[in-house]
Amino acid sequence: MILSFDPGHNCTPDTRAAGIRQEDVLTKDVVGLIIPKLRGLGHSALDCTPYGQVFNNVGNSPV
Predict the structure, then answer these.
(1) Distance CA 7, CA 15 (A)
(2) Distance (Å, rounded) from C-alpha 17 to C-alpha 58?
(3) Which of the residues 8, 10, 44, 63 has an alpha carbon 20 to 30 A from that of 19?
(4) Is residue 20 classed exposed, middle or buried when 0-12, 13-18 and 19+ CB atoms within 10 A define those classes?
């Protein structure tokens, strides 16, 4: 099985919720834990996070 993950809310201007912890840091941490486990089970797992991309507005940010 091929699985892809985009932790989301990490491209300007569609950035994280911030409070006690930062949303984008937590979602990336979770994906970082999930992908190796899935690969260990024989699946193909891809991190599709659009690192470093900037969009004109939130509507243009990947969903």
Answers:
(1) 11
(2) 14
(3) 63
(4) exposed
Q: How far apart are alpha carbons 54 and 18 in whole angstroms?
A: 19
The encoded tokens of residue 28 equal: 């990336």
- Record the tokens describing residue 62, joined without a space: 């990947």
Domain borders along the chain are 2-53
pLDDT tens digits along 12-61? 666 667 778 777 788 888 999 999 999 999 999 998 877 766 666 666 55
Amino acid (one-letter) located at 47: D
Q: Is the pLDDT of residue 1 over 80?
A: yes
Give pTM, 2 decimals: 0.68
